[in-house]
Amino acid sequence: MKITKEEVEKVAHLARLHLSAEELETMTTQLDTILSYVAKLDELDTTGVQAMTHAFSESNAFREDKVTDSLAREDALANGPCQNGEAFVVPRVI
Amino acid sequence: MKFETVIGLEIHAQLKTESKIFCGCSTKFGAPPNSHTCPVCLGLPGSLPVLNKKVVEFAIKMGLATGSDINRINQFARKNYFYPDLPKGYQTSQFDLPIVEHGEVEIEVDGKKRVIGITRMHMEEDAGKLIHDDREPVSYVDLNRTGTPLLEIVSEPDIRSPEEAAAYLRKIHAILRYLDICDGNMQEGSFRCDANISLRPVGQEKLGTRTELKNMNSFRNVQSALEYEVRRQRDILMEGGTIVQETLLWNPDRNCTESMRSKDDAHDYRYFPCPDLVPVRIDDAWIEEIRATLPELPEARKLRFIQEYELPEHDASLLTNSRELADYFETAAKACNQPKKVSNWMMTELMRELKGEELSTCKVGAEQLGSLVNMVETGTISGKIAKTVFLEMMASGKGPETVVEEQNLGQVSNESELLTIVRRIIADNPGQVTDFKGGKTKLMSYFVGQLMQKTKGQANPALANKLFTQELAG
Predict the structure, then answer these.
(1) CB pairs under 8 A between A and B
(2) Beta carbons within 10 angstroms of residue B367's beta carbon
(3) Confidence of residue B455 (pLDDT cuts 50, 70, 90)
(4) Nearest Cβ partner of A76 from B42, B54, B56?
(5) Could you tell me which CATH number the domain at B415-473 has?
(6) What value of ipTM does the predicted structure carry?
(7) A62: which strand partners?
(8) Which one of B202, B261, B375, B468 is at 20 to 30 Å from B189 when CA atoms are compared?
(9) Is B2 on the interface with A (CB under 8 A)?
(10) In Å, how far is B328's CA from the nearest CA of chain A?
(11) From first to last of its 94 residues, what are the pLDDT tens digits of chain A?
């Protein structure tokens, strides 16, 4: 087993996903299959190979420090499930 | 039992760019809520970040100014957590490949110099702002600040007292200000600081359990909060208790730290390299190009002040602590060509009257202070009167010439006018005159004092001395 049910439960909780007992079983099996497949890479000897963060050799994609137009506030707030015309409104935190 | 305090600071400095770190929205403070947002900083699906080149340059600058290593390849990572001020559900930051590592700054407390190590500095984005409603159980989210570039500067746990923490903080602040890459405003939150603090018995290698302090938005608060926390932890340890590792908020109204309800799973951030941002590669040419733009830094400026203006080290060190103070000094010193006098004025009267306020709010400009020093030097006013004039300048913002003229404070250098008074003093004090002539020359200061009293301090002291010597002779 590459992953335990407890680990799946924890990751689901961190992602704020609520899984039923049945879903948890399915997810654990599926994730285990995926991880086992990826584990094939472990067979390669990577001694002396530098770790890479991207599959291509591109680097330094920059923009200059120039201000561009922002969205109109109305548009920025439009997707919020609850807003008051000025700000997004959320259940109180702290 | 004797304890040793161990402190490490995490500083978040907002970098002074025009636009945000990954999009072109303005970083201007104080705009109407949610008026500086776009699909990128709102975290809308399908949007992609593009790194602001200036952020990288500023980070390299700070790295060079602190003798740090610049990592030739560095990478952004995602720090995952949920909070309403973080629309993407992760903060784009750096993790195992930060842009800067292994730096140091020198601090001085009570004449003792110490080197404080800098573990790392990394680029990241700021979160939004939450405003909590007074009555309703809701919070309002303003995402203008989301995506403002931050440089997080992490110190080694090398700091051994709250005073050293404050000194280190001031030093970093000064360097950022000298480099002009952060406006350093603690009240507006563009320069913020969290502290990790623990105590351990003297001689013990292993670190004690630490607490993390937040919400200290002034230099004074940082020191007070740490002093409070040292006492709190020591009391617990002395009674045989254990320190709970937790995050504490400084409450400046009650002058104590308070436990913050801990965020769920706060420390399981599941960092991973950000697939949307390609690595940053920095070559020597780029580093040298930036090195060439470095301004004179506090340490170099201090040495120059000692050489060029012949200031004592103490003065030079204090005046170069902040760029504003050093600039002010140089302007004033140039205006009157009396650097040591200007330094004295700044370190006594000016500092006292500022009462901890920022120099930028001071009503007395540097040139005006220079003129005031000049007026004393040329004998227009006495040193004593100058202090009165200075207070009036601080209160009204008027120039020294105006104040002296309006209040008729000019020094009396009119010989015949003073001579009349000198003669009257001699006539009124026959006993002292006899003693003086009998050899008690110290009485000269008594006579001059009398004259000052009668002229409300406005008599020219040199002329007063000359007249008494002349009238008492023979």
Answers:
(1) 127
(2) 15
(3) confident
(4) B42
(5) 1.10.10.410
(6) 0.90
(7) B51
(8) B261
(9) no
(10) 30
(11) 889 999 999 999 888 899 999 999 999 999 999 999 999 988 999 999 888 888 888 899 999 999 999 999 999 999 999 999 999 999 998 7
Cα of A1 to nearest chain B Cα, Å: 21
Residue A82 in tokens = 């609850």
B76-98 pLDDT per residue, tens: 999 999 999 999 999 999 999 99
Structure tokens at A48: 């002396």
Q: What is the pTM of this model?
A: 0.81
Are the beta carbons of A14 and B80 separated by less than 8 Å? yes
Q: Is A55 on the interface with B (CB under 8 A)?
A: no
Rounded Cα distance between B321 and B176, Å, is 12
A71, A79, A92 ranked by CB distance to B138: nearest: A92
Facing residue for A64 by CB, picked from B36, B53, B84? B53
- Size (chain B), residues: 474
How many angstroms separate the CA atoms of A93 and B81, rounded?
15
Taking the C-alpha atoms of residue B88 and residue B78, their distance in angstroms, rounded to an integer, is 10
| Phi/psi at B171 (5° precision) | -65, -50
Distance in angstroms (rounded) separating the CA atoms of residues A42 and B326: 59
Which residue is closest to A53 within chain B, CA to CA? B273
Q: How far is CA B352 from CA B109, B223, B357, B358, B391, in A?
A: 21, 20, 10, 12, 11
Q: Confirm or reject contact between B79 and chain A (CB < 8 A).
A: no
Count CB-CB contacts under 10 A for residue B308. 13
d(CA B81, CA A15): 8
Return the residue matching tokens 């629309």: B87
Chain mean position to CA B420: 53
Dump pLDDT digits (tens) for B367-388.
989 988 888 888 778 788 888 8
Write down the domain spans for chain B: 3-286, 297-406, 415-473
Question: CA separation (Å) from B54 to B145, B176, B230?
Answer: 18, 15, 40
- Is B84 in the A-facing interface, judged by CB distances under 8 Å? yes
Q: Reply yes or no on whether the pLDDT at B151 is more than 90.
A: yes
Q: What is the pLDDT of residue B215?
A: 82
Is B40:B52 a contact under the CB 8 Å cutoff? Answer: no
Residue B19 φ then ψ, to 5°: -115, 170
**Residue B404 confidence (pLDDT):** 80
DSSP string, B80-132: E---TT-TTSEEEE--SS-SEEEEEEEEEETTEEEEEEEEEEEEEE---EEEE
Measured between alpha carbons, how far is B399 from B367 in angstroms, rounded to an integer? 9
d(CA B210, CA B106): 24
On the question of pLDDT at B15 being above 90, the answer is yes
What does the H/E/C string look like for B174-202?
HHHHHHCCCCCCCCCCCEEEEEEEEEEEC
DSSP structure class, residue B348: I
